[in-house]
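EI: anyone free to look at a 443-residue chain?
SC: sure, send it
EI:
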Amino acid sequence: MGRDRYVDFLRAWAIGLVVLGHWLITGLERHSDGSVGAPELLATVPWTQWLTLGFQVMPLFFLAGGYAAGGSWVRARDAGGTVGAWVGQRALRLLLPTAAYSGLVLLAVGVCGAVGVDRDTLALVGWAMAMQFWFLPVYLVITALTPVLYGLHLRWGLRVPLGMGLVGGGVGMLGVVGDSSVAGVVGTVNYLLVWGVAYQLGFCWRDGLLSRGRVVPVGMAVGGVVVFAGLVGPGPFPVSLILVTGQELSNTDPPSAAMLAWAVAQVGVALLLAPGVRRLLAGVRVWAAVRAVGGGSMALYLWHMLPVLVVAAAFYLTGLAPQPGYGSLGWWVLRVPWLVVLGLVLAGVVWALRPLERALASLSVRLRPGSGVRWAWPMWAGLGLSVWALAYFAGHGFAYGGTFPVWPSVGLGAGTVLVALNRGAGGRGEGAPTSQRALEEAA
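SC: here you go
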């Protein structure tokens, strides 16, 4: 009863918009030789880059993640749990479904490679099935740092995200004023700093530092928008909050100062909307819908590009899909049935995956590390291997160059096993959750 429904809503809303955004910008074309291509909408129709201002909602996911993780860590710590046990529990909830998804996709890649599927096609499909993976290694690393980050929060409060933001903004400007190669290497730290700001603000929100009146949220919303406008108007950064091929600067790879400003603005708006949305969530039907999306959010996030492949095979390879000019009015009108069909296919995929999800949730409960885990070096090694493998898949896809990624596959499998073996003695860590609760928390 003490659960904040608005936090669940933010996670469900973020996942829903990620899925919808990926579907919206994914356009297919059937070539004269019968092959299917996927032109990049944001590069082909430049005005669509403005749409990313509404669809780039990952700051909300990190905000909600920080809010939930802060409470989870406090409960585990007060119950005598250790860092190794808590990190192992949280990591396992993400790694089990991710490893299952990756294993099935990699099996398909291996079979397709063996029967002689065109390597370029296989590489494109492998990239499409891994395009959402960038989020996972970042979130796993920040999760592993949660006990340290929360300790800093208890000592310095809002000064922590402020300091992280100042450093992240400075690092983000290196790509503009510094050597591009140096900036690219140093800029990777912004994956932790920029998204870490939203995560740290989740701690502050949970502990009431952001909800004392409307002054702070209004300042964040207005200040973030003003700074963002300055950085993308007269400033050097593009408006797109998603990577666009051919642009010299990017707001996401790594996260830029403009992305940081937009994240702060988005958090401010979310805080301002919280009272009204909470009143809506008091309704049984609205809350039931949020719980339905939240309970299946991991499956939605991992599997949402599979319907694109199904529709491509059924309608584009066969030539059944009409093909108005790419980005034309007719093309946009056809986005409506495109989204409807993809939604129906995804609903079927999620329904078919329910037995697998329940099995994974049950397995997660059985493998939960005990609160007595202290020297969890295998778990940390496994976490490192998993982060490396997921980062590789995020950057290269499941079939880079049309070949099977042997070592990343081994790394993810071995890493997941090492994290799962982090059992230890003692209690069950943070409470004794049912499989349903484990599934919801993983979401």
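EI: Residues 425-443 have pLDDT under 50 and may be disordered.
SC: 👍
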